[in-house]
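Researcher: Structure prediction, please.
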Amino acid sequence: MIIEFYLKLFALGYVTWLFYLMGMTIQPNWYQLSSTSKTLVSPIVVIFLGLNFIFNIAAILMFWDLPQERGLTARLNRYLDNEPLSRRGKGAKWICDHMLNPFVKGNHCIR
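Model: Predicted structure follows.
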């Protein structure tokens, strides 16, 4: 039962990350897209925003902390700012360095 729960949590995180990758491809090109293209990719953006919110709530189990932010990146930035050497700060740094920042120009996580 517990293993099944953590497998579902992993699957949620993985699917959220895949939608993040799609969204980071769409975002820099949004203003150059035709209205047809925007219409076709808008569901991806909406689904990602919903998944990001849900995963931020599910991340309570990872960080043992209630979210004060709507999205995961803002939460990770808070940990990097306020407690960079703690377990939460180190986890946030790993997620930013390995899962988020490599897929955008510059850094996705501000810190």
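Model: The mean pLDDT is 88.
Researcher: Thanks, that helps.
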